Amino acid sequence: MQTTQLTPQLDHLVQHGYVIVPNFLGADSSAQLYHYAQQLAHHDWQQAGIGRADQYTTNTTVRQDKIRWLSRDYNAEASYLAVMDELRLLINYELFMGLFDYECHLAHYPPGAFYRKHVDAFKGRSNRILTSVLYLNPDWQANDGGELVIYASDGSVLETVLPEAGKLVLFLSEKFVHEVLPGQRDRFSITGWFRHNNSIGGVIDPSR
Ligand code: OGA
Ligand code: MN
Questions:
Q1: Beta bridge partners of 183
Q2: N or C: which terminus of the chain has fewer CB atoms within 10 Å of its end residue's CB?
Q3: Does residue 201 sit within a domain?
Q4: Residues at CB less than 6 angstroms from ligand 1
């Protein structure tokens, strides 16, 4: 899997707490992941939930996407996890972020589906440090909708991001309120989190 040279973009991440990289993944690699997502069966997906472990609920008035956690057991998934592990090491090397691991899921938003304003992590209550979203949708047009909207701390719109194939967004998980607007087409992405290690007594913090 091919990715672009990232070092200059990491400066933007340091300065602003987020960065948008339009062609992070090459066209072939994102097409492969897109087709992989397309051919998955209904039972390969689950209704997305909110919160972690004991507080887990599904609430379709907040989010309506279907998800599939990636694992190293499937080649197509393993190759993306390998790319993101390289990115994790690069970020640690360049920015000293001490990111310990990475977890991610495919997400499918059918036409009209949304994910209301939220943050991915609450201060001091999560080990999610840095969020990544990679988009897989070929030929996505402005009037297809489905934008990711990232808000500044004063509530104004910071960025409106079209979910175009190969584009990667990175942002600090605790810092940015964001939402997914309803779109006209099926929308595929891979959302993930670089995490710190909250292991206690030798037990690695269970993910999700
Ligand atoms: C999420 C999320 C953004 C997107 O899954 O938490 O905010 O653009 N996704 O898909
Ligand atoms: Mn989110």
A1: 145
A2: C
A3: no
A4: 107, 115, 120, 133, 148, 178, 180, 189, 191
Q: Tell me how far apart the alpha carbons of residues 47 and 33 are, in angstroms, rounded to a whole number.
A: 20
pLDDT for the residue numbered 3: 63
Ligand nearest to the CA of 148: 1
Ligand nearest to the CA of 118: 2
List Cα–Cα distances, 182 to 22, 65, 118, 177, in angstroms. 21, 11, 15, 17
Give the chain's residues under pLDDT 50: none
Nearest CA to ligand 1 atom 6: 120
- Cβ neighbors of 185 (< 8 A, separation 6 or more) are 111, 137, 140, 144, 146
Instruction: Please name which of 91, 102, 131 lies closest in space to residue 6, comparing C-alpha atoms.
Output: 91
123-175 pLDDT tens trace:
777 789 999 999 999 999 999 999 999 999 999 999 999 999 999 999 999 99
pLDDT of residue 199: 64
Tokens of 114: 């949304």
Q: What CATH number did the domain enclosing 63 receive?
A: 2.60.120.620
CB 176, CB 80: distance < 8 Å: no
Per-residue model confidence (pLDDT) at position 123: 75
Total count of domains within the chain:
1
